[in-house]
Amino acid sequence: MGSLPIRVRVTLAFAGAMAVVLAVVGVAVYVRFAAQLDATFDQGLRSRAGDISSLIQQRDSALSAPGASVLVERNESFAQILDADGSVVDASAKLQAAPLLSPARLRRAARQTFIFTRSNPFERDEPARLLATPVTARGRRLVVVVGAGADDRNSELASLALLLAIGGPVALLLASLAGYGVATAALRPVDAMRRKAEEITDEDPGERLPVGAADDELARLGSTLNGMLARLEDAVRRERAFVADASHELRTPLAILKTEIELALRGERPATELRDALRSAAEETDRLAELADALLTIARADDGRLALSTARVDLPKLLGCVRERFRSRAADDGRRIAIDDEPAASVTADPRRIEQALDNLVENALRHGAGTIHLSAAARDATVALDVRDEGDGFAPDFLPAAFERFSRADPARARGGTGLGLAIVRTIARAHGGEARAVNDPRGGARVTIELPSAAQPQRVDGGVSGEVPPSARIGR
């Protein structure tokens, strides 16, 4: 059954149920019809017995007269009057002289009326239905027996059985064809969606499946599949944008690096110019390495291979390490890094990844912000919030909605290098720990980015994409 088409399976199930219904109805009709025939037959026997009983009570003297019979034969019916000892007092003209009742039935008939079936006295191979009832005529106890052949009853039942035997399969066949047609019509929208799905390719992912106007299961299925196609289209668009942006980001440092190398190799040049060229090449190489590392991190998150090695992290020590790492660089720019309110909180997380996220935030603050960079950590119920805030102009209002998108940059007037992947990596790391990252403009001035982590963080499925949605296929720590 599992290998058959759905419409065939539905039709077979419908045919099976219909066969059971037709069989039950057929048996019920046959039994009811037979009961009605028997009731009509028995009523005729009672009427005939009543007529004979009334007649012999009125003409009792005629029973003693030789040849004076009170019984009149009607079609195939017959009658017999028996004395209490079983002798035949009167009988139908064609009936044999032998009594129709056995001694046991005669004794029973002397007490009560009853109906029974025996062979037809005229046709031994055919059944007959008989009624025996007691009658008293002028002090004489008699038994009246009336009967009739059951040929007509049996013929009518046989005709009904033949009709049911022919009509039942015909009705079942017609019902099965109708069921197949209904199943085909019901599955037609599915077939239309299948044909449309075959036409959808990655070159034109904007196509959608046809959805009917009715609010039924198939329409909801089509809407769900169209939602999935929309998400896949968005994923394809993001991947294409990612490849294009990555190519664009790689093109500039590679072009600069190639130019510096070509200039260094061109003729005799002073040592100072060679050193400047090599220094510029080294800077571009660092930028390439930084970009490659960022791309690798996001690619691993997309593929579900961003491994986390969690441990209990001492936040004061972690923030102190981040401050010391950037202290000299901040001093060169006339700035400083401060830890606000020495935190006493701790969190279960991957210290290397959390430190990487904080490094990205401090790097962004040094590049795009101004004033002191404030680091802080605070416990909030079941979460721990890590904040990095500067005292600059803050984020541009139109940049905030796209702050965590890949290759997104703030106002070019504030940009001084960078790959545009720093905040995307921050959110990827936060979500890998079951947390979230948010960027706002602090009311006190400057940009503030917060990483919220569960106190006992558990690895989560992550997506380093633009929308930040969590795809079911992503896996952490594989």
Biggest sheet strand order reads: 2-1-5-4-3
Report helical residue fraction: 40-55%
CATH homology group of the largest domain: Histidine kinase-like ATPase, C-terminal domain
Please tell me the total number of domains: 3
The CATH architecture term of the largest domain is: 2-Layer Sandwich
Figure out the total of helices: 9
Number of strands: 12
User: How would you sum up the global shape?
Assistant: rod-shaped
Distance between the termini: 39 Å
CATH class of the largest domain: Alpha Beta
The low-pLDDT segments are: 61-68, 412-416, 461-478
Topology:
Layout: H1 6-58, H2 60-64, E1 77-83, E2 88-91, H3 103-109, E3 114-119, E4 127-137, E5 140-149, H4 151-199, H5 217-265, H6 271-302, E6 311-314, H7 315-332, E7 337-339, E8 346-349, H8 351-368, E9 373-380, E10 383-389, H9 422-432, E11 436-441, E12 447-454
Parallel strand pairs: 7-9
Antiparallel strand pairs: 1-2, 1-5, 3-4, 4-5, 6-8, 9-10, 10-12, 11-12
Helix pairs in contact: 1-4, 5-6, 6-9, 7-8, 8-9
